[in-house]
Specification:
The protein is of the alpha/beta class. It has 16 helices and 16 strands. β3, α5 and β4 form a beta-alpha-beta unit. α2 packs antiparallel against α11, α4 runs parallel beside α5 and α14 crosses α16. The model has no long low-confidence stretch (mean pLDDT 96). It binds ligand F0G.
């Protein structure tokens, strides 16, 4: 029997109140925050879709495990539980705990990188690229052709272009390619999944040329859902078996556990090679901590070990993916342009298509971010020219490729009625579409301006 209504496969045992504000109040809050929702206090936000990272609700089993944690400096039993959980999932013999994903990235890419080295990926996430470039190496994105074909409903738009990958390896010389990174799911590419066939082909190419393959696996459980349901021949495997098979193709993995390990803080680096593990362990000890805790406390490692099991539960994954798709499909039916098909953790709106009357140098994405907050108290993030735009020598904006807005959905936090509310807010966004104005930047810092820039409304 099939039902239309998606239900949360959990009961709520502990609640955190959210204060319901009015549109008039929010207009004031937005002005005080210089039209940049990053500068809003979170208690002024009704539905927080800024990120799915570190915002999960933990289960009673995770909290119980935390109480049972061992905080010993060395050889803690919490470390053993964590190590066993990561090892049995990834199959990698060496596991290094880090305080979050970017710490694992800094250790691995800092060690493998350096001037003259290249990293190739389906799409490097910002912190991945930043760590690679900081080491002096270069990061090249090789997304598949379908990734930018908005008319296509190709189920695996997160794939890497394997033909381009092999060409690049030959052109650059295999010894100069420090690693190939498959980001699963492809966050910066719209949260789109990567197929098993694509991961297999990538692994074959890497190993033929003696190049290391790394999985950035922070949303690998969500990716497994897509593989099981959209890739022929995969339906007989469990979600966990699919993830294990993908890890089996790789030489190393970095994980921000703040996503699919269902914890608020944590990460790890897992590698097969003992020599690489030894080198990375030295770097771990210098900045993160001793090998049996890295950047984590015992209770973090306990929560992570349980989270890595829970995330593969079929009822959870089904609800998670269906609920994200429900939001994306409903607003798409209403005429909101979204990246399609809908990915696992977020819905991406194409703000430049929604607001054709707002030129890119007036930041249509930021305009939508502000409208969603003003009309409904929803906080989300612009992924467009505010985040990635640069200036030319004359101070003219070189815009980003797309003006997107990401609605990233925290795991196990909001119910279907929250999602229905968000859909209603989009109706109001459409009603106000013609009157929505662009913004100008009135102050910005030299780096990562989207976090702190100040804006003013045009014509206001
Ligand atoms: N890799 C990917 C694919 C990510 O999405 C993130 C973080 C990281 C690495 C870095 O992990 O934050 O634990 O250091 N993504 C967050 C987001 C910030 O909102 O998408 P971290």
């Amino acid at each position: 029997m099939e039902f239309k209504t998606i239900i949360e496969p959990f009961r709520i045992k502990s609640v955190e109140p959210i204060r319901v504000s009015t549109a008039a109040e929010r207009t004031g809050y937005l002005k005080d925050a210089f039209f940049n929702p990053f500068l809003l206090r979170s208690d002024k936000v009704l539905i927080d879709f800024l990120t799915d990272s570190g915002t999960s609700a933990m289960s009673s089993r995770q909290w119980a495990a935390m109480m049972d944690a061992d905080e010993s400096y060395a050889g803690a039993r919490s470390w053993e539980r964590f190590d066993a959980a990561v090892h049995s999932l990834t199959g990698m013999p060496h596991v290094l705990p880090t305080h979050q994903g970017r710490a694992a990235e800094r250790i691995l890419y800092g060690y493998l990188g350096g001037a003259g080295k290249y990293f190739l990926s389906n799409t490097h996430f910002d912190t991945t690229r930043a760590n690679i470039e900081f080491s002096g190496a270069s990061a090249i994105d090789l997304p598949c052709a379908e990734a930018t074909d908005y008319a296509s409903d190709h189920p695996f738009k997160g794939n890497i272009d394997t033909a381009a990958l092999e060409t690049q390896i030959k052109k650059l010389g295999a010894k100069n390619v420090a690693a190939v990174i498959l980001t699963i799911t492809n966050n910066s590419g719209g949260g789109q999944p990567v197929s098993m066939a694509n991961a297999k082909k990538t692994s074959e190419i890497c190993h033929k040329h003696g190049v290391m393959l790394v999985l950035d696996c922070c949303r690998i459980a969500e990716n497994s859902w897509f593989v099981k349901h959209k890739e022929p021949g995969m339906e007989h495997l469990s979600y966990r078996e699919i993830a294990q098979a993908m890890f089996g193709l790789a030489d190393a993995a970095v994980m921000s556990a703040k996503k699919d390990a269902l914890v608020n803080m944590g990460g790890f680096l897992a590698v097969r090679d003992k020599k690489l593990s030894d080198a990375c362990t030295n770097l771990l000890i210098i900045t993160e901590g001793f090998v049996t805790y890295g950047g984590l406390s015992g209770r973090d490692m306990e929560a992570l070990a349980v989270g890595l099991e829970e995330v593969f539960e079929p009822d959870y994954l089904q609800y998670r993916i269906k609920s994200t798709a429900y939001l994306g499909e409903r607003i798409r039916e209403m005429g909101v342009p979204v990246i399609y098909p809908i990915g696992g953790h977020a819905v991406y709106v194409e703000a430049h298509v929604l607001y054709p009357h707002i030129p890119v140098d007036q930041y249509p994405g930021q305009a939508l971010v502000c409208e969603l907050y003003r009309l409904g108290g929803i906080r989300c993030v612009e992924v467009g020219s505010v985040m990635f735009g640069k200036y030319d020598e004359d101070g003219k904006l070189i815009p980003a490729a797309k003006e997107l807005v990401r609605l990233a959905i925290p795991r196990r936090v909001y119910t279907q009625s929250h999602i229905d509310y968000v859909i209603e807010v989009f109706e109001k966004v459409l009603d106000h579409k013609e009157q929505t104005r662009g913004l100008k930047i009135i102050w910005e810092p030299p780096f990562l301006r989207h976090f702190t820039a100040h804006f003013a409304q045009n014509g206001g």
